[in-house]
Specification:
Elements: E1 9-14, H1 31-44, E2 46-52, H2 56-60, E3 64-70, E4 78-84, H3 92-97, E5 108-112, H4 119-135, E6 140-143, E7 155-158, E8 162-164, H5 169-180, E9 189-192, H6 197-210, E10 218-226, E11 229-236, E12 243-252, E13 269-278
Length: 279
């Protein structure tokens, strides 16, 4: 828990061919178009991912799509979609990043299957993408690296901004089914992308203590840091607890292998919840 990279805007670009190791960065797009997308994404603090449908659908898609997915804390998440056949068509992404988008679209389920980035992403991600596509073919996309391999399989629901990790075929179907019913469980939850790591850990611990809840049922209302410790105030909606203070501390693990591809051993920051108190 506490390992979801911060993001509130997502750009997805359908690309059914082989993905470069560095994803969108490695595509040989027209420089002016690519530069415009970079500048607009940077200004919006958006993450850019390549996506494709799983299996045969990836090869048979008649039109490639792009989308801009935007998270709003109110729950009115917004999306804007377009299609492209020429590089110049992707300029629509720049315009979409400057507009609010439309409400009412279903969420997008992204499964990291980026084998050229790390073999585990594809080895474990593709079976998960297959299982999820069987149940939700119109919602599920394979995608390039979403961060935090730790031997995969990582699933992101956007623009909800919810990261799940260490999933397999069975657990992924359960997690997404519950998510779509607005019941987010602590198990497999890496965090909410609009929160920072200690806040993510605090919310995950609350879900673990009090049971699953909706994406917007808990809100972080205050964060105080003292060195490697935090006091985080969380307010909840009924029937859950109304107001809580969660204490979190951070520490580093002993050096270990963090990815399948990485040969060097590195330490990672781990967030531990030491107490949860009602107010």
């Amino acid at each position: 828990m506490g390992t979801a990279p911060h993001a509130v805007v997502w750009v997805v670009v359908e690309y059914p061919g082989a993905w470069p190791a560095n994803g969108f960065d490695g595509l040989g797009l027209e420089p002016g178009v690519k530069g415009g997308i970079y500048r607009a994404a940077q200004a919006a603090r958006a993450r850019v991912l390549l996506v494709r449908r799983h299996g045969r659908r990836a090869r048979a898609a008649p039109d490639r799509r792009w989308g801009v997915l935007r998270f709003e804390g109110s729950g009115a998440h917004r999306q804007q979609w377009g299609t492209w056949s020429r590089d110049e068509d992707l300029a629509g992404i720049v315009e979409a990043l400057g507009t609010p988008g439309e409400v009412g679209h279903p969420p997008v389920v992204l499964v990291c299957a980026h084998g050229r980035h790390d073999a585990c992403c594809a080895r474990r991600g593709r079976p998960v993408a297959h299982a999820l596509s069987e149940s939700w073919p119109d919602l599920v996309w394979e995608c390039t690296h979403v961060g935090g391999d730790r031997f995969a399989a990582n699933v992101v629901v956007a623009p909800d901004g919810v990261y799940y990790g260490a999933l397999d075929q069975g657990s992924s179907v359960t997690a997404v089914e519950e998510h779509l019913a607005d019941r987010i469980h602590a198990e497999h939850l890496r965090g909410y992308t609009d929160l920072f790591p200690p806040q993510q850990a605090a919310v995950t611990a609350v879900l673990d203590r009090f049971g699953p809840a909706g994406r917007h049922d808990y809100a972080v209302t205050g964060t105080v840091r003292d060195g490697d410790r935090w006091k985080i105030r969380i307010s909840g909606r009924p029937p859950g607890p109304g107001s809580l203070t969660v204490e979190v501390r951070a520490h580093r693990t002993a050096p270990t292998q963090l990815t399948c591809r990485g040969t060097a051993r590195s330490s990672a920051v781990v967030y531990e919840v030491t107490s949860i108190r009602g107010e």
